[in-house]
Amino acid sequence: MPGPIERIRNFAIIAHIDHGKSTLADCLMGQTGLLAERDQKAQYLDRMDLERERGITIKAQTVELRYVDPAGVSWCLNLIDTPGHVDFSYEVSRSLAACEGVLLVVDAAQGVEAQTLSNVYLALDQDLEIVPVINKIDLPGADPDSVIQQLEDGVGLDVEHVVLCSAKTGIGIDQVLEAIVRQIPPPTGDAGAPLRALIIDSWFDNYVGVVVLVRVMDGRLDLRDRILLMATGATHEVTRMGVFAPDIVDRDHLDAGDVGFIVAGVKQLGDARVGDTITHKDRRADGPLAGFRETKPMVFSGIFPVDNADYPSLRAALEKLQLNDAAFTYEPEVSDALGFGFRCGYLGLLHMEIVQERLEREYGLDLINTSPSVVYRVTTKAGQQFDIHSPSKLPPVGEIDTIKEPIATVSIHVPERFVGPVLKLCEDRRGTQVAFDYAGPGRLQLTYEIPYGEVVFDFFDKLKSCSRGYASMDYEIVRWEAGDLVRLDILVNKDPVDALSVIIHRSASFGKGQAVARRLKEFIPRQMFDVAIQAAVGTKVIARTTVKAMRKDVTAKCYGGDISRKRKLLERQKEGKKRMKSVGAVQIPQAAFLAVLSVDD
Asked: Which of 153, 182, 243, 364 would staple 64 via disulfide (CB 3.0–4.6 Å)?
């Protein structure tokens, strides 16, 4: 059981992707005796199959550690393991709200990277104590002295108490635990004040309903207490509570400073909102806690069931997923080509991939996904301004005054020898250089302003390719800017296919139109008549290809005789094909939609 509040330490582990956060969390659990050796496995806190397969953390996880220091004093350490990928930075910011300090993990071989800086700023914004930990010092290419210099010069951290360790081999883990106890302050909270607990995460359990992860800021929460959710006004009775250590350990109360879960029979998915404040029904707090900044999705795509009968199942799956993922949004959408589905919003392309894969795996759904698009801000000639999430919602060209696109400031850390290809990539994506600085010996930090639509689509993959995996990036949307943007429509047999429309810069529309038309030609089956595949901007066709008709040999039975007999048969066949073409509908297979998504621009 937790001791007095002075003996509690709430901390998160933050780092750039792949610098060893999850491995360090495993090592701390092993060192404090929480896991027996036979139970230990890599990435223990990454519970989802997707996390284990991809080797990334998607959902932040918590665990309560028991540490006895050399003087024999027992401490309660609440550890939160956070994601490192830029798409999941909202998970990091939520986790930091429950902490008083962070371990900033930096790879001794890779050094300070883009997401390292971004996470430091998140921690500084919340006024947290930062403990620098240099990991992987056992690697042959490790250079801790250089990394310490980068932390001091580039990040501006106090490196007097930096800790060197190797989470893989266990070197220096005792020093990490000592640093947590000595450098991170205890929680502040008034045990006698009315209850205020911050919801830092929530998820749906098929057996007990909504499970809520909370950090108790003030007061005390007991089993069977009647609680009030301040944002919605809903009241419930607490039926179960406890902590993760790392498996569930039931408790009969949670005190100020504790991080734990509660089950209170919450059935409505929208009732337990992340960032909401929980208080007692009868003894209410004066006001809610600050909560979190609302996250706004910036990438949108359509999700449609392959079989229309699965539509209700898809809607139920999206409801459950949205509770577990506060940054994910959806709304119903109807497509002429694909039927009923949903327009879904994400923070980035990796977020989109993860959501789609979770829907298919966890809920057993077969889905078609349309081309992703970012948010655009349209001003009409009548003076109306609105945001559009789908190219099909764009008004006719004659009604549009301006289309504004989001502009992102992209920070790239890259070794000097790869700077040429990286500069070319940024220029090709309509980037404007803002800064060009040396981050250390042989390392550069480039800052570019690039339209967000260009960043979202495979920019990260291309950056990794042209730098052989050494470059890292972070981005933030800073403003909206008017651009020469057009909607590229794809027409099959003169009918527009709304699911394949994209909004694109005019200069790139010709190449994209040609590539999509060529790709579609491979997948649309041949008919008894020619099928034209066209790419058009407004009323102007800018690319075209044709799926040639199948031809029946109608003259096969004509042996000899006058040529006019054969000509008459061929003319009759041509008339029949014309008539068929005027009423013929072309079925576009699902494989064609998937193929268009993989068109390399």
From this structure: 243
Q: Is the peptide bond before 246 cis (omega within 30 degrees of 0)?
A: yes
How far apart CA 92 and CA 98 sit, in angstroms, is: 10
Sequence letter at residue 121: Y
Query: What would the pLDDT profile of 199-253 be if each residue is shown by its tens digit?
Result: 887 777 777 878 888 888 888 888 888 888 887 788 888 888 888 876 778 888 8
| pLDDT at position 54 | 42
Backbone angles phi, psi at 44, to 5 degrees: -60, -40
Compute the distance between CA of residue 286 and CA of residue 277 in angstroms, rounded to an integer.
11
Domains delineated in the chain: 5-183 (3.40.50.300), 196-280 (2.40.30.10), 299-371 (3.30.70.870), 377-475 (3.30.70.240), 486-597 (3.30.70.2570)
In the chain, what are the helix, strand and coil shares in percent, each to the nearest 5?
30, 35, 35
Structure tokens at 423: 């500069």
Q: What is the pTM of this model?
A: 0.66
Concatenate the DSSP letters of all residues of 240-289 into one string. Answer: EEEEESSSEEE-SEEETT-EEEEE----STTTS-TT-EEEESSS--SS--
User: What pLDDT is attached to residue 57?
Assistant: 43
Give CA–CA dist 453/135, Å, rounded. Answer: 35
Chain length of the chain: 601
Give the Cα-Cα-Cα angle 68, 199, 322 (nearest 5 degrees).
125
Higher pLDDT among residues 494 and 594, named by residue: 494
